[in-house]
């Protein structure tokens, strides 16, 4: 079932069959938000998760959760159809995900001396992408639990991109490299 923005905004959660959604096969992609504070970024991440048919979003460490008017508005109601869970500590979310799926690779999207260019990384499923706080990035304790760190090139004077934009670029590289 494909719905445009107007249809998504006008539908109540019950209008989209939960039975249909449960039967739909999700891609083994997980998104972890480590203290992302901007509710419009969070809502946009729900749209991204839906766009790549991600399995789940982990909202962690201070990230706002639904129900929230601004998340709902930015997500155009995709927060109703994308599975999510809140963890007080991002490290606990990662440990929980690893417990449930031993083969998962946890990859941070962050600037670091340990990072590799996002387009050179060898992505495979299952995968979890971690993005962090709009100013502070992914926390050190979370980076320490990651299997890899990827970075986008910044060719101008600005040092970074918006969280949602960075995640979107890397998510579609995952889609491309895994053949989804």
Please, could you describe this protein's structure?
The protein is 35% helix and 20% strand. It is α/β, with parallel strands linked by helices and 180 residues long. The chain has a single domain (26-153, 160-178), classed as Alpha/beta knot (3-Layer(aba) Sandwich), CATH 3.40.1280. It has a seven-stranded parallel beta sheet. Helix 3 (39-51) links the parallel strand 1 and strand 2.
Question: What is the topological layout?
Answer:
Elements: H1 5-10, H2 18-23, E1 27-34, H3 39-51, E2 54-60, H4 69-75, E3 84-87, H5 90-100, E4 105-109, E5 116-117, E6 127-132, H6 140-143, E7 148-151, H7 163-178
Parallel strand pairs: 1-2, 1-6, 2-3, 4-6, 4-7, 5-7
Helix pairs in contact: 3-4, 3-7
Features:
single chain, 180 residues, Alpha/beta knot, 7 helices, 7-stranded parallel sheet, 7 strands, alpha/beta
CATH fold field value: Alpha/beta knot
- Sequence stretches where pLDDT stays below 50 over 5 or more residues: none
Q: What's the rounded overall pLDDT mean?
A: 90
CATH class wording: Alpha Beta
The residue fraction in helices comes out at: 25-40%
Percent strand equals 15-25%
Please give the count of helices: 7
Query: Which architecture name does CATH use?
Result: 3-Layer(aba) Sandwich
Please, what is the CATH homologous superfamily? SPOUT methyltransferase, trefoil knot domain
Major β-sheet annotation: 7 strands, parallel
What structural class do you assign from the helix and strand content?
Answer: alpha/beta
Using the CA coordinates, give the radius of gyration: 16 Å
Distance between the termini: 18 Å
Order of helices and strands: HHEHEHEHEEEHEH
Count of separate structural domains: 1
Strand order of the largest sheet: 3-2-1-6-4-7-5
Number of strand elements: 7
**Cα shape:** globular
